[in-house]
Amino acid sequence: MKKFLIVLSALCLSLSACSSPAPETLSPSDAGATTPQTPANAGSVQNDGGGAVSFDGGNISATGAVTVDGNAATITSAGSYEISGNLDDGVLVVNTKGDVTLILNNAEIRSSTVSPLQIKDADSVVIQLADGSSNSLTGGSSQRSEDAADPPDAALFSKSDLVISGDGALEINAPYGDGIDSKDTLLIQGGTIQVSASDDGVVGKDYFIMNGGTLSVMAGDDGIKATNDTHVAMGYVEINGGNISVKADDEGIAAETSVTITGGTVLVETENNGIKAGELLKIDGGTVEIITDDDGLKYEAKQISPNAVVTVNGIPVS
Fold first, then answer.
1. Which of 9, 47, 61, 120 is deepest in the core (most CB within 10 A)?
2. Beta strands of 77-205 (E only): which ranges?
3. Using one digit for the tens of pLDDT, what is the confidence trace for 92-120?
4. Cα(158)–Cα(259) distance, rounded to whole angstroms?
């Protein structure tokens, strides 16, 4: 009889638990959370496992996943890192997996021998120009590298997808090599960016996209270009907004596949082709002005909308 009552009691407890309502599971939006996004402006380190790097002449201090070896600081873990101060002759390196945000907050990095900012490895890197900040990267007149297969040859060099955003300013000086060179993709969302380079000004291998901000380029070779010639869906330039001015000794804007302009203002002054598209040149909007000693527009196929204003040496083009 006792065994029967024990079994019956246990069964009642079990049925009671099963009949109790399950706790409600809240979605991120129900709980008040939002989908993580790249911040439009930032002046402090985000709380996601990053850190900070501060320069003072020849000295480097750092917190978080950053190793310091002499005049070199290397970021070794994903996260957000605030970069500030002046480094007289050194280098900042990103070498990790995952996504990294570099918040440049009045940072100046100069190097006489190597690319001052090198992104060797990461899934993607966002360079956030802190609101109201003034930042600069200056390379030397010659550079050396241990990476013989793909040496860093730009003041801002990246082997990963690269995004530049924010409301600050960035000045890039490259007495040797390119100004900005991304061996993957390059997206400009905002900021006031000034590039001066002895070789190419701005390179996005897979693509160059500009959605906003101001970009000024002075280049000893090509101004802006996308260079991937092995993939039919890559190697293109797309300008959707912002202001671009290019002065180049060779081609102003060049793409292996297509150049598409939907908005913004574009001014190109060059001794060679103003805008060169290996396949399609499509201008749906915006204002495009080209001053050149050669062909203003060069393409395999062309589409210019009446919504766009396009001139070559002062002559309207449609």
1. 120
2. 79-87, 91-95, 99-110, 117-121, 124-129, 134-138, 154-158, 161-166, 169-174, 178-182, 185-188, 192-197, 202-204
3. 999 999 999 999 999 999 999 999 999 99
4. 22
Contacts of 231 (CB under 8 A, 6+ apart): 206
Q: Three-state SS for 75? A: strand
Handedness of CA 223, 215, 212, 307 (dihedral sign): negative
Per-residue pLDDT tens over the stretch 150-183: 568 899 999 999 999 999 999 999 999 999 999 9
pLDDT, residue 149, reads: 52
Say if residue 193 is exposed, middle or buried (CB neighbours under 10 Å; 0-12, 13-18, 19+). Answer: buried
Q: Is the pLDDT of residue 274 over 90?
A: yes
Q: Which pLDDT score is estimated for 31?
A: 30
pLDDT at residue 43 tops 90: no
3-state SS, 265-317, equals EEEEEECCCCEEECCEEEECCCEEEEEECCCCEECCEEEECCCCEEEECCEEC
DSSP tag of 48: T
- Residue 305 vs residues 208, 239, 243, 302: alpha-carbon distances, Å: 22, 15, 19, 10
CB 276 within 8 Å of CB 270: no
As a whole number of angstroms, the distance between CA 33 and CA 315 comes to 54
For residues 203 and 248, give the distance between their C-alpha atoms in angstroms, rounded to a whole number.
13
Contact between 282 and 255 (Cβ < 8 Å)? no
Evaluate if pTM is beyond 0.90: no
What is the per-residue pLDDT for 201? 98
Per the structure block, which two tokens stand in for 202? 């701005």
Question: Terminus-to-terminus CA distance in the chain, angstroms?
Answer: 99
Amino acid at 57: G
Q: What is the average pLDDT across 41-45?
A: 33
d(CA 195, CA 181): 11
In angstroms, the CA 193 to CA 218 distance is 12
